[in-house]
Write a structure and sequence with these properties.
Length: 309
């Protein structure tokens, strides 16, 4: 839409014409738009290059186009013939997990095929909020003591180098892609563990609430033992959660002593980000996001106030 408040800041195009990535501002919020047309052959290198180029731009990302492969072999195919998943589909799924591609979809519908043989899709996305502050991800060292975590990471590493061992990419590109993949695997496992922990806590709390109600109705030995058992289980879960929080706090603040390190630098950068002025209204009633224009507007405003008449 030519009336949309979108301002292009930078763009990247593929020399072969396979994809285009446009980064800009939609009003006052940054957004990255990308369109991909994958080849008809199973070439995962094109997908890897696309996501590596896309990783240079901040989220949110809105990706469209045609990847020419089925991500879900059951839902994305009309034929009942069983076929193997392509390498491009595996690379796309791994990239979606690695880069945490997610969006809030409010509506989605298929439109009539008017021009080509493909049905266009119209998706309505919810605009991201600017209320969330900066987040610094850290590896939970307790995950290294869990056998299922180590087994999943080991199998992911073996699968990655099995598909990328003879790739024509440079070692630097393969190494960066491997770091993104393993980072996404760790975050996915950690998120699933936290979700299971919360569900276990909620389930125990609901069972305890029901057991206390039964104990109030019938003060029997069996009901008292059930209430005591549920309280013990909840206490163990709460103690483990408090222990992990205490160890994390101790490692962040007390282990360094009086030495200045990454934590102090992170806090200073966060304070600088809080004091940042993202935009300013210029004398010609236009809003600019450029730092040079913002500095010039402040200089032109405060210079007459502090000048001697």
């Amino acid at each position: 839409n030519k009336n949309s408040p979108f301002h292009c800041l930078s763009q990247v195009t593929d020399p072969a014409g396979r994809f285009i990535i446009v980064h800009g501002r939609w009003g006052s919020k940054p957004v990255t738009l990308a369109s991909m047309y994958a080849p008809n052959v199973d070439d995962p290198l094109v997908i890897q290059i696309f996501f590596l180029q896309l990783a240079q731009f901040p989220s949110p990302w809105v990706i469209g186009g045609d990847f020419n492969c089925s991500l879900d072999m059951v839902m994305d195919r009309s034929s009942s013939v069983q076929v193997a998943q392509t390498h491009m589909a595996k690379t796309i799924l791994a990239s979606m997990i690695s880069y945490l591609l997610s969006h809030r979809v409010k509506a989605c519908e298929f439109l009539p095929r008017l021009i080509s043989g493909h049905s266009p899709i119209r998706i309505q996305l919810e605009a991201p909020e600017d209320l969330q502050g900066p987040y610094r991800w850290r590896l939970n060292p307790h995950l290294l003591t869990r056998e299922e975590f180590m087994g999943e990471i080991k199998s992911a590493i073996q699968e990655f180098f099995q598909f990328n061992q003879s790739a024509p990419s440079s070692p630097d590109v393969i190494w960066e892609a491997f770091k993104a993949m393993i980072w996404g695997k760790i975050i996915a496992f950690s998120s699933a563990s936290k979700k299971a922990f919360r569900q276990q806590m909620v389930g125990l709390e609901q069972e305890l609430r029901g057991a206390e109600t039964e104990l109030y109705k019938n003060n029997s030995e069996e009901n008292r033992e059930r209430v005591a058992t549920l309280q013990h289980d909840l206490n163990e879960l709460s103690s483990s959660k408090a222990e992990r929080a205490l160890l994390r706090t101790r490692s962040r603040f007390y282990a360094r002593g009086d030495k200045a390190g990454k934590l102090l630098a992170w806090q200073l950068r966060r304070e600088e980000a809080d004091r940042l002025i993202p935009s300013s209204r210029l004398p010609d009633d236009t809003t600019s996001f450029a730092p040079e224009a913002i500095n010039g507007a402040f200089q032109s405003y405060y210079s007459p106030l502090y000048s001697t008449q």
